[in-house]
Amino acid sequence: TMEVLGFLRLEASGPMVMVALSVVLLVLLKWYSTSAFSRLEKLGIRHPKASPFIGNLTFFRQGFWESQMELRKQYGPLSGYYLGRQMFIVISDPDMIKKILVEKFSNFTNRMASGLEPKPVANSVLFLRDKRWEEVRSVLTSAFSPEKLNEMMPLISQACNLLLAHLKRYAESRDAFDIQRCYCCYTTDVVASVAFGAQVNSQKAPGHPFVKHCRRFFATSIPRPILVLILSFPSIMVPLARILPNKNRDELNGFFNKLIRNVTALRDQQAADERRRDFLQMVLDARHSTTSVGVENFDMVRQVFSATECTVNPSQQHQPRLLSKPLTVDEVVGQAFIFLIAGYEIITNTLSFATYLLATNPDCQKKLLREVDHFSEKHPAPEYRHLQKGLPYLDMVIAETLRMYPPAFRFTREAAQDCEVLGQHIPAGAVLEMAVGALHHDPEHWPRPETFDPERYRCS
Ligand code: HEM
After folding, report:
1. pLDDT tens digit sequence for 109-167
2. Is any ligand 1 atom within 6 A of the Cβ of residue 126?
3. What is the tally of structural domains in the chain?
4. Which residue ranges run through the membrane (predicted)?
5. Structural domain includes residue 439
6. Measuring from atom 15 of ligand 1, which residue has the nearest CA?
7. Distance between CA 284 and CA 286 in Å, rounded?
């Protein structure tokens, strides 16, 4: 035996080892580059042909919006793709979406995370998982109840008055101006006031630290070549990106964290009735226990409508429930960040698109103006519940704007366990993408999808 081993040692030395190792490495690389790409086929789901390492990345050259339409056109309402090795199952069939998000929801509570979300975003309800998601979501549900929203209305009106004053000046001068910038200032003021407890007039004070940090947060993006590397080799690149020093990221996190810590310390010193009634306060109040119960009560729309129809206060119906552990400062910052993500870009874009659609559809604009004028005569100081009933045409205009230009046009869910959805097998861990944009532009469900027609939503 010794002789044989000795012979092997002799033979395996030098260039031979190099060649053998290179061959093994190449075989492994070849396997790694394509081994992930048979899963969709096994599930019987059609998809564009995947390229080694990057999967269908090049299919998304034009951006996700165009590609989502293309996927639906070429492969139908159930299709798939790979980003790097990650498989996505894309769904734009309303029945299937309903099954996943309503009937079988308990198997799909988690969203997919890339692992690269900035800390406050990772701590927000958008990326918390399982039990903790449910607990924090119930804190938010109570903070968004109609009566709590009513308490926040004065803060929102304050920011709105500033916006109207700016718009009036532009209207009087009759000069062209960028309305998206005005909306951006308005939403920044609302977010600062409602979620971070800070009073800001961003149009007048663009150098305010809050305004500057918000702009920086949204200006930060991952350069394309790095993105390709991350998608192709996630198991190496994601941990690497997380540990590598990133001054910009740390500075931004530090700023928002310190702001919330300072405001929290101040609020804790104040008497309860002296505290500002904002979203931050609602979350701080609910740090230890929450009044709303489980997932079945998370449907805000139902709550809002039940509150307008009868006077029962929904959150009063439930006993307070202790959280398994109180919200940490990082988690409070995370929930305030939801406003930054949702309230800043999404609302700025929705307002801008609605304005554009009204400007290009003057008849709708006139009709809306009549409704709003009538409403303000009737309710000089409107409450939240008045908004629900008194402005049906505005509601239709917003719904049609969101149909045509949905800001969150794709979102994901992860399957916790193997399951069947309308005959389609979904394996545990699979990521399902709801193709909101493609569904909203499907002529089968929305005839003449490119036409702005708020009447689609008229309740007869
Ligand atoms: C036009 C406006 C908005 C649109 C189109 C929109 C859209 C969405 C979508 C598509 C989701 C993901 C749903 C899912 O994964 O099932 C979501 C989640 C969420 N949005 Fe919005 N959003 C808007 C405004 C807002 C605003 C203003 C806030 C709060 C300030 C907000 C707070 C949230 C929260 C807290 C979640 C997570 C809920 C959860 O985890 O259960 N959204 N939104």
Report:
1. 999 998 888 888 899 999 999 999 999 998 888 888 888 888 889 999 999 999 999 99
2. yes
3. 1
4. 12-32
5. no
6. 411
7. 5
- The residue nearest atom 31 of ligand 1, judged by CA position, is 342
Q: Is the CB of 403 within 6 Å of ligand 1? A: no
* Residue 158 resides in a domain: yes
DSSP 77: S
Nearest CA to ligand 1 atom 23: 342
Residue 49 lies in a domain: no
Pairing state between β 424-426 and 78-83:
unpaired
What spacing in Å lies between the alpha carbon of 342 and ligand 1's midpoint? Answer: 6
Is the Cβ atom of 112 under 6 angstroms away from ligand 1? no
Closest by CA to 78, choosing from 418, 433, 430, is: 433
Residue having the nearest C-alpha atom to atom 6 of ligand 1: 408
Q: Is 377 exposed, middle or buried (CB count within 10 Å of its CB: 0-12, 13-18, 19+)?
A: exposed
Q: What does the pLDDT look like over 52-96, one tens digit per residue? A: 989 999 999 888 999 999 999 999 999 999 998 899 999 999 999
Alpha carbons 366 and 364: distance in angstroms, whole number: 5
User: Is residue 349 a part of any domain in this protein?
Assistant: yes
For Cα atoms 287, 347, 367, give the angle at the middle one, nearest 5 degrees.
Answer: 130
CB-based contact 377:384 (threshold 8 Å):
no
Decide: 439 in ligand 1 pocket, CB within 6 A: no
Longest dimension (CA), the chain: 103
Which atom of ligand 1 approaches the CA of 195 most closely?
30
Query: From the CB of 102, is ligand 1 less than 6 Å away?
Result: no
- Using the mean position of ligand 1's atoms as its centre, give its distance from the Cα of residue 202 in Å: 24
Task: Look up the CATH number of the domain holding residue 175.
Answer: 1.10.630.10
Give, in degrees to the nearest 5, the angle at Cα 192 between 187 and 197: 145
Find out whether the beta carbon of 446 lies less than 6 Å from any atom of ligand 1: no
User: Does the pLDDT of residue 317 top 80, yes or no?
Assistant: no
CB of 352 within 6 A of ligand 1: the answer is: no
pLDDT band of residue 36 (cuts 50, 70, 90) is confident
Q: Is the CB of 382 under 6 A from ligand 1?
A: no
Ligand 1 proximity of 37 Cβ (cutoff 6 Å): no
| Beta carbons of 162 and 331 less than 8 angstroms apart | no
What distance in Å separates the CA atoms of residue 26 and residue 302, rounded to the nearest whole number?
Answer: 57
Note down the domain range covering 330: 127-357
Under 8 Å between Cβ of 393 and 371: yes
Q: Ligand 1 atom closest to Cα of 412?
A: 15
